[in-house]
Each structure stands twice: as C-alpha cells, then as structure tokens.
Amino acid sequence: MTSYRIALLPGDGIGPECMDATRIVLDRLITETTGLDLTFTSHHAGAELYRETGETLPQSVLQDCLDADAVLLSAIGLPDVRHPDGTEVQPTMMVGLRRALGVHSAVRPVKLYPGVPGVLRDAGPGIDFIVIRENLEGLFASFGGGSRVGDEVVTDTMVVTRKGTSQVSDFAFRLAQRRNGRPRDGKKMVTCVDKANVFRSLAFFRKVFFDVAENYPDIHSDAVYVDAMSLYMVQNPWDFDVLVMENQFGDILSDLGAGLVGGLGLGPSAEIGEHHALFQPSHGTAPQLAGKNVANPLATILSAAMMLDWLGDKHDNTVCLNAAVTLENAVAQVLRERQVRTPDMGGNASTTEVAEAVAAALSAAASSTATSSATSL
Does 112 fall in a domain? Predict the structure, then answer.
C-alpha cells in the first residue's frame, strides 16, 4: 500500500464548506476502497488570512504544498480584501502558487452529466471535451509586470515560449490518448485555439503546436481561431475532444464551457506540472453564500476525483485510478437521480446533504461490488 499526503487549502467564502463536504466524500471513499491510503494536512491561506496577517500564503504553507503529493484547494479570495493599490489579493496568491509549483497545464473538463439541465441537453450526441490552458505564460505572464506611464499609457505583454507551448501541447496530446474521443464519432483529436491570423505570438503558438503534433500521428490535430471557437462551442460542442490554448483565452472559454453543462458548480479543474499538481473548483468564493450551507460542493468533489486520477497515472497506481472512476460515477449517480440538489441547480438540499448523498452512493457501489464478487465465486 502506498500512502499519499494531500495539502488542503480550504480558502475563503464558501471554500471551507465545500472542502468539509469533500472530506466527507473522501473519507468514505477511503473507508470503502481497499488499498487507498490518503492523509491530509490543512492550512489557512487566502484573503481572510491576509486581512488578519497581511499575507495570503505563508512560506511554511507553500513549502508544505511543495512537499505534499498533491494540493487540493477550494476557493480563494474576497472582493473587499485588496492590496493598497486596489487590486484583489487572490491573483497574487494563485499566480505565486502556480509559479512555485510549476503547473504549466490547466485542465478544465466540460462534461454534461445525465440528469443535469442545460439548453443543449437534447441537441446532439452529448458534450464531453477538455479545455487546456497554458498556465504560466501568455497574457498572464504580465501579472506583476507591465508598464504604466502616468495616467495616459498602460501596456501588458503576452509571452509565448517554445518550451511552455511544447509542454502544454504535449500534455494535451497525451491526455487525448487516454480519452474516448469526441462524442460525435469517437475521433481522438486535439484542437489548437488561437488568433494566429493577427498576433505573431499566437502564430508561433500554432507553429509549435503542430511541431508537437508530429509526435502523435495517431491523434488528429487541427486549429481554430478563438472567436470562431466561441461560436462552435455553443453550436456543436460534440465536435471537440481536447482544446489547447493560451492562458487568457483558456480562462474565458473554460467559463463558457461550464455554462454549457450546468454552471461553475459542476466545473472541476486540475493544474498539472512536471512534478506537482494543484486541484480546485473553477468557481469563486461566493461570499454572499458563505456560512449558509447551500453552496454546490460537486466541483470540489470532482476536482478530488481528478486528483486521484493524476496520482494513479503518475505513480502507476490502479487503486487510485479506479477510485477516481468510482468517485466520478457516484457524483454522476446523484445527478442522474435528480433528488439531492443545491439551489443553484433548482433544488433545496444543503452542501452537507449533497456530500452525504455522494458518500452513500459510494457505499452502495462498494456493497454491490462485494455482493457481485461473492456471487461470482
């Protein structure tokens, strides 16, 4: 048995409630899964900590994130907690954490689960694609930089390197190899999303993408301009499998994708590097909901499933890989049954009740497996 230590960052607003709900589910999954050994360390970090101490991410917390096998974060930031220059403290923490961990590929699944209402519910063969944003470069590379001349001129610089683009493109193709292809016909494909007709930086991004594509002749590759992709994602999302793009484009299109499949409450994410990985829901802290036990915890729970999948893939651990599938299936079952839903999905269940429903689905699945195994003997 291999033990993995997870650094937990519950964060701000609804973050602690969603993290508590996720712990209910993970603790049940550990109990029901032979050989799954996870331990946790939890740390105070984010906007509330900044309000109290003047820092968002203490060095000791950052070091534990670097030493852990994975980091699971809930939600960080509060709109009224700002630096003296008026900017929110959340970007300082998140960009700093990403840079320290070296997580170059941000992965945002866009998947429409049975039972989830949506305007495209019955319009095609299903929605199941991945948005991958380069996570350290692009326009976000100007964070903390840029230039300002008085009150007249401000500039930010987009940065695209061969190394960064190669890393995220290679990750996209390797992920496509593990998937079942696009819903329309099962074709495995990676699409570069850019604005190569206007910007030299993004023309270079496309060039490097196709250089990497040559290493994956089994995966179809193509390219689409970002403005066209914002149309295609709404008109025919089942035509796509894996999309890879610059940081800012990915930040925007991944939220559009979440809107197609039930909202940010169902939007998990992973940020992957060569040695470290960070997992978090794609939603914000929703301070207006904090303390009411009504926030949707499923994005955080699904992020935990992505964490288990990454641990399994990295360490060739079938227990973690199977646990990831089991956890996602339990979430899918709760959604399919349409009985336990938080208000954002039209229900009246609490955050805790949703977590308990997913945990119950895990136990039922474990019981069914044990009965089946006993019968087969």
Answer: no
